Amino acid sequence: MTLSLTASAAFSQAHNVSSGYQKPTDPKVLENLEQWQDMKFGLFMHWGTYSQWGIVESWSLCPEDEGWTQRKPEHGATYNAYVKNYEDLQKTFNPTDFNPEKWADAAKAAGMKYVVFTTKHHDGFAMFDTKESNYKITSPKSPFSSNPRADVTKEIFKSFREEGFKIGAYFSKPDWHTEYYWWPYFPPKDRNVNYDPEKYPERWEKYKQFTFNQINELTSNYGKVDILWLDGGWVRPFKTIDPTVEWQRTIKVEQDIDMDRIGGMARKNQPGIIVVDRTVPGNWENYVTPEQAIPEHPLDIPWESCITMGDSFSYVPNDRYKPTKKLVETLVQIISRGGNYLLNIAPGPNGDFDQAAYDRLKELSAWMDTNGAAVFATRAVAPYHEGDYYYTKSKDAKQLNVFHLSKGDEYVAPSTYVFTVPEGFSAKQVRVLGTKGKAKWSQKGNQVTLHKPQATLSYATVIQLDSK
Hints:
This protein has helices at residues 27-39, 79-88, 100-109, 152-162, 201-220, 259-269, 324-336, 355-371, and strands at 5-7, 41-45, 114-120, 166-172, 227-231, 274-277, 293-295, 304-308, 340-344, 378-379, 385-386, 389-394, 399-404, 416-420, 427-432, 441-444, 447-451, 461-467.
């Protein structure tokens, strides 16, 4: 499968979409995937000690000279001093405004149906009560550990589960803190393991077991988990490397962590769990995940675009949040191509979102209340996208949804909507969601003409057609 992507912003870590998708065979996984595809819209949250510095998550620890790995001199004059100061952030992390019910309420009102939370990013700091490491939010070194809600992963999963969300655990396969991945005997060279696992197999075995144990904890001790979202695709069997992808060419050694064993354990703990081993094709990449980008054409496999509400995945003071019109347009473009939209909002060091994020969610909520019927439990349908019009259909194909978008900062509706419908689709009834009274429309062949209703519409016009 070849794929071109439309970037929604300048982005640091472009993730290719791997070719050779393998459809799962487990009936429970297929049922879970079908439900997940109905949900369309999810909340992603990158949160860790790095929010205190307002910097990119984890990447400044990586000794690669890239735009997103830049270190600020005030945080350490040398690499080693920087790492020590970064790891000492654990000692001041105290997000006392943490209130996951507030997040769940706002996300649910905005139409979000599932959540994916960063239980551990590449820096290795666990936002859950792992027994494998003291580098965690529940360690006595962290002031928040004395808070009754210190195990934030448990609290987030519980709060969102109570609101009917599917629960996703983001977990980084690479861990730059543990000696089993970045062995202190050698300096780290880049994002990859800093020793040769085939030369030091006992150390690599310990890393495999460490990773297995942490994922076992997450899928055993935290209630129902629906999605295991595994990041860090450079930790992979050497034979799966795609040499056409620049970052995969940097992988010089075997980094197989035995995904069959991990995935099998996760499925035993959580029957039907969706496993997303990002960019590693095979049994354990149950859906694909373009990052900060939207495929230019529909994909006939399950997929999700993870895109930030601001410019950054992690919390940055005074981040530039996308206008609500842009968020609606992104959602429409994604669902018309058959995907899900995983929208990232980063909590700050105090444990809450910026007010601007809540403002966007509230505006989305008003739009979803009116137009959600054209969004949820829909599928892509030809012609997918023509000019300013985008299409979805109900799963039984009896209802067609047509979205009209306009360029510019404010939505401008045309005086007359003229659009094509799928071959053989004959409309019985046409309505514009959010308006009262009968719509004036006509159909000639596969072209529908609709006169603009007397109403002010925000962000987009959503037209729903019932077939005869």
